[in-house]
Write a structure and sequence with these properties.
Elements lengths: L2 H7 L13 H11 L12 E5 L1 H16 L16 H17 L7 H9 L9 E8 L4 H20 L3 E5 L6 H8 L5 E10 L17 H4 L5
Antiparallel strand pairs: 1-2, 2-4, 3-4
Helix pairs in contact: 2-6, 3-7
Length: 220
């Protein structure tokens, strides 16, 4: 597909087949994605790919912590509030997602079950974890965002599904143990990646996007 089609048709997938992504495909995915621009070509990103026993270790630990109500201590704190415009976007997206899969807002048990599935990589055996050195600042975080977008687009072009998830980095000490990394390495984002269940309703949700007039202003 061409680039414009790839961008406009990509969406986050949340129901995967229990199949690992081959190592050579992950290698190719990162090889292409690494062509992202960065400040003075600093290339601050690192990626830990989890599969097999490592994935099982991560899932078991972070799922249990989430079930126990442990809020975690992410390396990059989650937002405590949002401006109204962004808050409205988030609310409408969540409302549409649950309605699309037939879950009422009042069904707290089912909503909790869906939330906890984040910690199981939505059924996939493979997840990618993007991290940086603690000495790097905001501009390097921005660079990693560009790199992550490349990962999502290249995965889509390869026929893979992916979902960027802050939830997966809620318990970074588990990740550092799994990947044998020291405390100087800070986790930005996890990405569940794999082969999607194409008929699953949650994989066919269309999210609303802001109108261009609400984003773009010309100044002449």
């Amino acid at each position: 597909m061409n680039l414009a089609e790839c961008i406009s048709t990509r969406s986050s997938k949340r129901d995967f087949k229990n199949i690992p992504v081959p190592k050579d495909l992950i290698f190719k995915l990162i090889e292409i994605s690494s062509h992202a621009p960065s400040w003075a070509n600093s290339q601050p990103w690192k990626v830990a790919a989890a599969t097999g026993k490592t994935s099982e270790f991560i899932k078991e630990n972070i799922y249990k912590m989430a079930c126990d109500g442990n809020m975690g201590t992410p390396d990059f704190p989650f937002p405590e509030s949002w401006p109204k415009e962004q808050s409205d976007n988030i609310f409408e997206t969540g409302k549409n997602r649950y309605e699309s899969i037939g879950i009422l807002r009042s069904n707290e048990e089912k909503r909790r079950e869906i939330m906890l599935s984040n910690y199981l990589f939505f059924g996939s055996q493979t997840a990618l974890f993007v991290y940086i050195d603690e000495t790097l600042g905001h501009w390097s975080v921005l660079d990693c965002g560009i790199f992550i977008q490349n990962i999502l687009l290249v995965a889509h072009d390869m026929g893979l599904g992916a979902c960027p998830q802050a939830y997966l980095v809620r318990y970074p000490d588990v990740l550092r143990e799994a990947f044998n990394l020291d405390n100087s390495k800070k986790f930005l984002l996890g990405i569940s990646i794999g082969y999607v269940k194409k008929e699953s309703p949650v994989n066919n949700i269309k999210t609303a996007k802001m109108k261009v007039d609400d984003i773009l202003k010309y100044y002449e």
